[in-house]
Amino acid sequence: MRGDQPQRGHQWTSSSSVVMNVTQPRMRHARLFEMVKTTRISFGGTAGIVTSMALIVGLDAAHAGRAAMMSALLIAAVADNLTDSLSVHMYQESERLEEKEAFIGTLSNFATRFIVCLSFVLIVALFRAHAAAVWGIIWGMLLLTVLTYILARHRKVGAMSELGKHLAVALVVIFVSKGIGLWITAHVT
After folding, report:
1. Does residue 38 register a pLDDT over 90?
2. Which residues does 155 contact at the CB level (< 8 Å), separation at least 6?
3. Distance from C-alpha of 20 to C-alpha of 2, rounded to nearest angstrom
């Protein structure tokens, strides 16, 4: 065995490969952001999160039961989602996006929103109505925070300012939905 060669099973490392090994987790993290096209998850994710929180809070304020909440969430997950996905697809076609890209974008939008809505259905299935509303808000704000962080990193802008704007809009939607639910309860028999 020669003295300038590593032993069997070992390799010489240079300082650059050590740096590569140290930065490997960061590179995987960066590749994750590159793999997931934010345009494919941002619309469906945001719509699914905010709509689901609004439905749960508004229906809870109107004293709707779990069955009504689950029905509303599933209707949003399927019917409203299909409508939004068709709208996104037609918009992409009007922008003359390549047919395959438009189809993948439409499918990604539908799948993202469907999965998000199903996560809220699970919350309603696990908790009573009012507890489901509280946990739905917590879960929704967490999801919106993560999505906002991913978008901010992708756009290379400050996450905190973006987070403030996105959570503020979500809170307005939640309060308006609660107000509608309370108004319906007070004025409709």
Report:
1. no
2. none
3. 27
pLDDT band at 30 (very low <50, low <70, confident <90, very high): low
Helix (H) or strand (E) holding 187, with range, is helix 159-187
Per-residue pLDDT tens over the stretch 129-152: 899 999 999 999 999 999 999 999
| pTM, full prediction | 0.78
Q: To which residue do tokens 């069955």 refer?
A: 67
User: Which two three-digit tokens encode residue 169?
Assistant: 């809009």
- Which tokens in the block code for residue 70? 């689950």
- pLDDT at residue 28, rounded to an integer: 54
CA gap 166, 161 in Å, rounded: 9
Measured distance CA(124)–CA(55) in Å, rounded: 11
d(CA 62, CA 180): 8
User: Is residue 117 within 8 Å of residue 45, measured between CB atoms?
Assistant: no
Alpha helices in the chain (DSSP H): 15-35, 38-61, 66-75, 81-94, 99-126, 129-155, 159-187
DSSP annotation of 3: T
For residue 82, how many other CB atoms are within 10 A of its CB? 13
